[in-house]
Amino acid sequence: MTVLPAEPMLLMTAGPVPVPAEVARAGSMVIDHLGDTMGMVLRHIREMSRYVFQTQDDKIYGVSGPASAAMEMAIGNLLWPGRKALVLQGGLFSGRFAEMALGVGAEVTVLESEAGKPVTAQMVADQLKVDSYDVVTMVQGETSSGVLTSDLQQILKLARDDGAMTIVDAVCTLSTMPLKKDEWGIDVLLTGSQKGLSSLPGVSLISFSDRAWETAVDRQGRRPHWCLDVVRAERFWGEGSYHYTAPVPGLLAMHEALRLIIEETLEKRFERHLHSSLALQAGIEAMGLELFTPEAYRLNSVLAVKIPASVDDGRVRKYMEHRFKVLIAGAYGFDIVRIGQMGEQCRVPNLFRTLHALGAAVARQDASVDPSLGMATMEAYLAKQADDVL
Prior knowledge:
By secondary structure, the chain is α/β, with parallel strands linked by helices. The chain has helices at about 20-25, 35-55, 65-80, 90-105, 120-130, 150-160, 180-185, 210-220, 230-235, 250-265, 265-285, 315-325, 350-365, 370-385; strands at about 10, 60-65, 85-90, 105-110, 135-140, 140, 145-150, 165-170, 190, 205-210, 300-305, 325, 335-340. It folds into two domains: about 20-265, 3-Layer(aba) Sandwich (Aspartate Aminotransferase, domain 2); about 265-385, Aspartate Aminotransferase, domain 1 (Alpha-Beta Complex), CATH 3.90.1150. The longest helix has 22 residues, at about 265-285.
């Protein structure tokens, strides 16, 4: 009985993404999770993560679980009954912080933006005049709607000046666009493995500043988590002693993914992601479709595309899947489809295959689009870029 498809789908969703061959190869191995080789791998992951996070933190952990597990590690170690959190909510994933904070007994205030728009620095400044908080949470990019928190640096400064610690979700943005943990004053930064890093799903990365680490260590009373307790995690990551059986294949894959990022360099990687996204945006608009998010706060790593009223987006996605073996994502409460532009998705052949599939699927429902013009426009944009960009 055949289980796996003869031709795997091209994953152009908001994650997971295709992985390089080196990452897939590393992820097929199992080694002793407490042996000397594993100890070396953990040291290397920490060292390479410092470059990708742009930090000097030494409290960096690979969490066994998705980015949501890293979110829980951040929340569970910095918040407890009697402490207050301000959650900046611009969509489904940024709002998840509120659920977690309530779960550990914190007092939570949600500052929510208008649908499809980011929380602004002015909104935060106004709220900080009303009350002060121990922790402020936010996302750099809202995966559910393709919205960038364009005021991120200003918001971080406002929170820091008010004495709050900050937690930033960089799940769909780390390594796809500039993010400087230390320079911008971020206390806790987290990401998943299966998006910009182009590694296997199931492992997340999190980095704690000295201030955040000291707060977690000094907390009184019972700790709500065992696997996600940073004190126990440090015994494994920092001291090499047993915590739980580490996700060995995922960590080996993460090691290779980080190595490849360093080999490419962040600067070249940012440029590749930017021009890949702009090329696809140009093709989509020239074809006759409209991008959901205004340019001022458009997230390059997850593009949100409006679907014409006469078109069934579910049928569009199904036709792309069955006819072209291309997967894109639906949405959470918006009349859009989402196309990932992260890591290995940002390769020229993937762009052409995805744009052609989208155009053909929409045109099949008699919408007024011109797929050929879209392809030609994208090709013209790409032709202007240097050969080593994409």
